[in-house]
Amino acid sequence: MSDLVKRSLSLSGHRTSVALEPEFWTVLDMIAMTRQQSFASLVASLDATRPPERPLASALRVAALLHLQKRLETSG
C-alpha cells in the first residue's frame, strides 16, 4: 500500500482533513462520478449517515469497500 494522502474539505461549515491511501481516494472519486455528484457532496452524505462512533476515515474506507463488493456481485 502507498503512503496516506490527506485531503481537506468543509463538512457542516467546519474545515476538516482526512488521510487515506490513494487507492481509497480513487474509488471514492469513482463513486462520486458514478452518482454524478461532487466529491464534497459524497463525503457530506457519508458523514451524515455514519454512526457517531465511527471515524470519518473509517466510514470512507467502508463505503469504498462496499461499493467494490456491490460491483463484484453484479458482474459475477
From TrEMBL:
- Matches recorded under InterPro entries: RHH_dom, RHH_sf
Indicate the segments forming the Ribbon-helix-helix domain, all copies: 5-67
State the protein's name.
Answer: Ribbon-helix-helix domain-containing protein
Organism, by scientific name, is: Gluconobacter kondonii
